[in-house]
């Protein structure tokens, strides 16, 4: 399903100011009350269902990927199958669960390569995966999707997003290289309403239910994080345990803090992060894991700080941070760029940022921002 901007409902839009410009209290209060008075429970149920089913498909592909030792051959085709299949499943679920709600989908993939000559076998694999996954959910009594139906489901994610109407934002597999290695990845789904993230779901199939670094006798993995604006963040198992409310680390002492950063060096400057950590007095080594699973782990207090400083010229996409950002903020944290400005998801597919993205609790943020600025200035001087 694809619904263009012309069919979206138009509402009054307020631009959310940066932290460096304090908004007038009347406008700020009106904005918050407008969103907080809305209910997104139907959308939350649909999002959790979509992400869980997509995770089931991804788990099946990853299991086959590892058993066939494709990882050692660096063959990316099964990952592509999972990306496309996950996106098609999410699109299908949103269409069926929210058929009366006008919205569009901003997603990472499109079907262009699948329409090329020679892609028929890959498309058929995706079609079978998608239909098997949908059939595993007993509430859907529908005919299997055709190849054209799968292509249409994938292409429902062609929206550009923006500040008007509702837009779902999807990364069908966040953390591709982690997926290939059999490590962390996430299905990340968020809802924008008038350009603001109001709901987020992270399905993290390989993230332990127990905090990272804590041995669990059961050893159960597979977490589902969900957050709605003004309602907190909750974690449950992917197999359906009761949700529990989670909160970011309350530590005030930066020396006791630990921090997350990307596993891939291209996604974060390890040297800059090391300099920042040294200025803060952080003693623990960095925890490097793939995907928005970091946001989930941060939201439940596994670490206290998240640092992401990609290489110059890299543009952050909204699907890489929309779901994770609300999961952290609703758990009591702050997510901003490296100057402390809040992330603005209202400008389309890309984020405009100063240097990078950071997250921590409110008490650590002033010291973190100071350490970042000092480290950036020192790095610039050395160059």
Task: Provide an overview of this structure.
Helix 2 (41-67) packs antiparallel against helix 4 (77-97) and helix 4 (77-97) crosses helix 6 (147-155). A hairpin with a 6-residue loop joins strand 6 and strand 7 (244-246). The longest helix is centred in the N-terminal third of the chain and has 27 residues, at 41-67. The chain is built from 11 helices and 12 strands. It has 2 domains: 41-246, Fructose-1,6-Bisphosphatase, Chain A, domain 1, CATH 3.30.540; 254-382, D-Maltodextrin-Binding Protein, domain 2, CATH 3.40.190. It starts with 24 loop residues before the first helix and ends with a helix. By secondary structure, it is of the alpha+beta class. It has a 7-stranded mixed sheet, sandwiched between helices. Strands 9-8-10-12-11 form a 5-stranded mixed sheet, with helices on both faces.
The residue-averaged pLDDT reads 86
Q: How much of the residues is beta strand, in percent?
A: 15-25%
CATH class of the largest domain: Alpha Beta
Structural class: alpha+beta
Inertia-based shape: globular
CATH architecture of the largest domain: 2-Layer Sandwich
What is the domain tally? 2
- Helical content, roughly? 25-40%
CATH fold naming of the largest domain: Fructose-1,6-Bisphosphatase, Chain A, domain 1
Oligomeric composition of the shown chains: single chain
Total helix count?
11
InterPro entries: DPNP, Inositol_monoP_metal-BS, Inositol_monoP_superfamily, Inositol_monophosphatase-like, Inositol_monophosphatase_CS
Cofactor: Mg(2+)
GO molecular function, one term: 3'(2'),5'-bisphosphate nucleotidase activity
Keywords: Hydrolase, Magnesium, Metal-binding, Multifunctional enzyme
């Amino acid at each position: 399903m694809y619904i263009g901007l012309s069919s979206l409902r138009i509402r009054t839009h307020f631009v959310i100011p940066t932290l460096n410009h304090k908004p007038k209290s009347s406008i700020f209060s009106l904005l918050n009350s407008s969103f907080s008075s809305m209910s997104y429970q139907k959308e939350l149920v649909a999002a959790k269902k979509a992400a869980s089913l997509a995770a089931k498909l991804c788990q099946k592909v990853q299991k086959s990927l590892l058993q066939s030792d494709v990882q050692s051959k660096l063959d990316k085709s099964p990952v592509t199958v999972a990306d496309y299949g996950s996106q098609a499943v999410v699109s299908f679920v949103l269409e069926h669960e929210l058929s009366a709600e006008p919205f569009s989908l901003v997603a990472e993939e499109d079907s262009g390569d699948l329409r090329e000559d020679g892609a028929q076998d890959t498309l058929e694999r995706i079609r079978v995966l998608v239909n098997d996954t949908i059939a595993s959910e007993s509430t859907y009594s529908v005919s299997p999707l055709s190849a054209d139906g799968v292509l249409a489901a994938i292409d429902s994610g062609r929206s550009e997003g923006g500040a008007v109407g509702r837009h779902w934002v999807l990364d069908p597999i966040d953390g591709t290289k982690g997926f290939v290695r059999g490590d962390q990845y996430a299905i990340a789904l968020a809802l924008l309403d008038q350009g603001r993230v109001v709901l987020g779901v992270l399905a993290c199939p390989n993230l332990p239910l127990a905090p990272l670094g804590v041995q669990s006798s059961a050893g159960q993995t597979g977490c589902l994080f969900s957050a709605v604006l003004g309602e907190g963040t909750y974690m449950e198992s992917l197999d359906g345990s009761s949700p529990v409310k989670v909160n970011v680390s309350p530590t005030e002492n930066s020396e006791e803090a630990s921090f997350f950063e990307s596993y891939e060096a291209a996604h974060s400057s390890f040297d800059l992060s090391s300099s920042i950590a040294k200025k803060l007095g952080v003693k623990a080594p960095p925890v490097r894991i793939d995907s928005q699973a970091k946001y989930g782990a941060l939201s439940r207090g596994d670490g206290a700080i998240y640092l992401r400083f990609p290489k110059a010229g890299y543009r952050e996409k909204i699907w890489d941070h929309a779901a994770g950002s609300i999961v952290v903020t609703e758990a009591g944290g702050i997510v901003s760029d490296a100057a402390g400005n809040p992330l603005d998801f209202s400008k389309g597919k890309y984020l405009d940022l100063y240097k990078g993205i950071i997250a921590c609790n409110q008490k650590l943020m002033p010291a973190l921002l100071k350490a970042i600025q000092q480290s950036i200035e020192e790095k610039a001087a050395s160059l």
